Amino acid sequence: MRGKLNVCLKAQIALAVLWWAVTLQGNTAFAQLPAAVQQPHVRFESISIEQGLSQSSVQAVVQDQRGFLWIGTKDGLNRYDGYAFEVFRSVRGDSFSLSSSRIEALLVDQDGDIWVGTNDGLNVFSYRSRGFKRFYYQPNNSNSLSNNSITSLFQDKSGVIWIGTQKGLNSYNKKTGAFSRYLAAKDNPTTISHDYVYTIYEDKLQQLWVGTRGGLNRMNRDTKTFVNYARVSDATTSPVLTLSFNEVFCLVGDDNGTLWVGTGSGLYKFDRATELFQNAENTLMATGNLIQKQVNALCRSTEGNLWIGTENEGLKYYNVKTGEFTIYRHDVGDPESLGRNQVSCLLVARSGILWVGLQGAGLNKYDPQIQQFVTIRSSPRPDALSSNYVTAIYDEENGPMWIGTSEGLNMYDKTTGKFKLFRHNPADQLTLGDDNVYCILRASDSTLWVGTDRGVSRLNPDGSFSNLNLPALAPNGNQVRTLCEGEKGVLWIGTYAGGMSKFNIADFATASFDTVYRASLLPDANAIQSNRIYKILLDPADSTLWIGTQSGLTHFNPRTNVFKNYVHDPQNSLSGPDAVYSVCRDLKGDIWMTSYGTGICRFDRKEEKFYYFTAKEGLINQGTYCILADRDSSIWVSHNQGLSQLSSNGTFHNYDVADGLQSNEFNTGACFQNAKGQLFFGGIKGLNIFDPSKIQRNMYIPPVVLTAFKKFDRKVEFDRDISEMEAIELKHTDNYIAFEFAALNFTSPEKNRYAYKLEPFDEDWIYSDDRRYASYTNLDPGKYTFRVKASNNDNFWNEVGATMQLVIPPPFYRTGWFRGLTLSGLVVMVILGYGVRIQRIQAQKRKLEGLVEARTRELHLKNQQVLEQSAQIKREKQRTDQINEELAMTVEEVKQKNLEIEDKNNKILDSIYYAQRIQRSILPARQRLSSHFPESFVFFKPKDIVSGDFYWFTEKNDHLLVAAIDCTGHGVPGAFMSLIGYSQLNKIVDEMGIVEPTEILKRLDEAVLNVLQQNGRQARDGMDVALCSFHRPSGKLRFAGAHRPLWIVRDGELIEIAADRCGVGIGQLALNSPKQFTPYEIDLEKGDMIYLFSDGFTDQFGGGSDRKYMVKRFKKFLSSLAHLPADAQYHALGEEFRSWMGGSPQIDDVLVIGMRMTEPGLKITPLQHKALSGMKREVPLRRL
């Protein structure tokens, strides 16, 4: 019995009983194994000061009503949303801060307030005030706290807050604001047994229990008396039935009404009917599990069992029904083990995650959701797996499990829980043929066959090996990759370069091969199509073979000796893949296969057609390795980004290391399905085992909260928490705002996804993937509603989400009162002006009357002169009438000409607008650029109706090409040049297949010269070009420029890749020098911001003094924008251009393209370039 007990407690051999660990995880991958086996890899995620926690000793942890975690440490209180911490500390002189930064206890009450017990007072935090209210011991006030050193907090069902201190128990009534004290009295046995209170708990019968330094107490709240349960020294009382240690640190009840008591000497079970204790040590002796030493924390699991945090023995899981324990301890060699063995507090959150507070190791997270995949890894123990690089698996139903690695063959004995290693010994011919094991097979005659890099090895009953070498007719012919047993004891052997061999198992003694099948040097339809064999699969329906080769899928009928090859046809999308690495058969009889780079493929045997499933259908990675079909008609495939499940409804669900996989990368050939339907996949860091029928998705719908509001990239502090606010009012000058938000799902929070919209500004939801902020610029005055929704890691959405009203009042000059006041002022001014005007008119009238009288006399004298002149005027009138008739005819002719000119002008304008539509239609849709560069923009502002600047984007094979082109001239001439450039670029890339930037510029130059028939010094029509080519597989960027450079902003510094001083289409004699375009190859880094542009922005006049914007100013402006999101940069460019231009006319077309690299990998091999300071320095940039 004692020996079995010791086995269970060995930290390095078996930290837990594997059966119960797997049962806890909801997975029975090893349910048939006994208790004394190697512990599976259980993952604890460590969250400590490196992730932002204020201090590494966690004293208390709770979850509030909104879903935030509150974590108390010895230096500060932390609020955690799964991404970042907000830290609260005591601030000298600030009465609304914590009374002390050393946190001892936490409580979330029924109103959602957070109670914080410290070593110097009690605090309560309210979201409504966004501050802390303090409570202290007051010597002259009996209604105050009994002591400032808070040890525990609890709220009973009636709403009373109970506070344990180092000197007494206290209750607090929130309505009256008064404290009541309960202190120990030596002469009164009905008082609490000791003033030092550790824990408080209310059971299902609403009885209050208090754990103290002097034992356990049950309180009668009506009489305010206590019943004490303490260590009994009376020899007549069995120590098994009483507490053996008076310090009671924690209490919890189970569904059966049992009270579990954690003390300084272990765990006790209290029977309330008999009021007797059972020592858990004696209770568990019969099972061989011993729990001992100090218990610091207790909490119930989602299954109703117990989690137990101890002082030095780690974390323990106790199954209440069976009495079995699973023990988790810190393992120095395993970074995913428990961070430390000293557990101070525990919390099972609403999502089922267990949070473990540790002393000196921060907070550990145990998430059952990511434990569904059992992981087996190598360790320094001699009886452990020899290597994490797993290449072959075979699990026997009533025997051991065999694992092939790069360091030999491992046999896992399910009765002992130990591995036995078989390795190659060059000095011993009876050892394994080679340490690189690629396939394992248990034949029907019970013989174990192993395929290695040096042939086939057979395991003999005495533990030795007999090795079989294949016919050495080809290099690497002994490198065996697959084994398959066919009919009548035939062993089919597939090799890496020697084709397929047929071997009769009964003829092992003679080592004779019946047939060797190799590819023919000449085309032969009845020969295997490749000598490189990856997989041989026996079809149980007709005993034929499906063979995966380097040249595709092959079907072979051993009875007729006939091959049928399915060759890839690039012109036929329903033809087979180039290379097939893994093959399986589903329940319907269809054949599935993997092909690296093209995803997975289903072969319909009736139609003889191949159907592909790639990234377009939801497969996260197309570099596929192994494929298996489970019993629920799902297909499982391993690749370079984890595992993917293709359900029978055609949808993919992807799993990665965050879900508990050994790594995101797996190995070819390393997969197996055992008789129970469990699946095995091997990778570069171990082996994963799981039952696909037990895999459960995370159904927890996460709360969505707003965490911050920013103006001009600075957080706005409100007088209450933003979650308590219904609306935010801004000034009309607040033209750059941002919301930050979070989904409080702590299971793989990096997989949470978000969508938001600002009504009525946004018509549709904006899906931002894992981006947790939304920014807006230059919003018009009005009322808006911001909405955000989010999903958890398994794509279950909280459609309600969070909302916030946004109010932007108009400026005073656009308000109704100002307009009314202005109108009233105008009316008054009109009335006053009218009165003054009448007075002036009357004065002028009197003055005019005098002048009229004098003038009348003068006119009378001159009347005679007028009569005399009248006759002369009549004669002149006749002549004038004649001239008027001639002028009328001339005017009519002019009107007719004007109509003709106007008609021609309208036709010309119609033609130009039609040209504009043509030009816009040929420009690539900006969505094409954003589909490859999500963080990108195109700022395009033509001077006239049509433009001489244009942007160009295309895809060719694995290359993405982006260019910014500035043609000579603007308007119609420039537009004609842009059409020439656009058509020639498409012809060079799409028809000629050229993707090298320098070669493209060279061909474009020749084409433009030829089209325009330019040569000599007068050939000055052409274009300036900045051209980038992104090679997706390698992550390289190649660049060439004709007068237009490439700018990269990295970490706030602008790097300039200079262009050649020659343009495209400019005659060589006009340049006075030979034309040459320099190639550059650039490795970018994650976060780099790339800019391509014409000279329209920098040449624009304005700024109030009619001067050019200039390149230097443009560099500084882009450097200041580069950290902003692409949409914010776009709006900022527009605002800057309008502001600079002012009243000046636009002088040229403007084009700016910006793209942010969201994937790592860009270095620049040596070339000097200019930084903002004007200094030159060496940066890595490579000339081709």
TrEMBL record:
InterPro entries given in the database record: Ig-like_fold, PPM-type-like_dom_sf, PPM-type_phosphatase-like_dom, Reg_prop, WD40/YVTN_repeat-like_dom_sf, Y_Y_Y
Keywords of the record, alphabetical order, are: Coiled coil, Membrane, Phosphoprotein, Signal, Transmembrane, Transmembrane helix
Q: Which residues form the PPM-type phosphatase domain?
A: 931-1157
TM stretches of this protein: 816-836
Has the keyword Lipoprotein been applied to this entry? no
Which Gene Ontology molecular-function terms are recorded?
Answer: phosphorelay sensor kinase activity
- Keyword Transmembrane attached: yes
Q: Which residues form a coiled coil?
A: 838-907
User: Secretion signal: which residues?
Assistant: 1-31
Among SMART domains, the record links this protein to:
PP2C_SIG (SM00331)
Family matches, as Pfam families: Reg_prop, SpoIIE, Y_Y_Y
User: Under what name is this protein listed?
Assistant: Ligand-binding sensor domain-containing protein
State the taxonomy lineage: Bacteria, Pseudomonadati, Bacteroidota, Cytophagia, Cytophagales
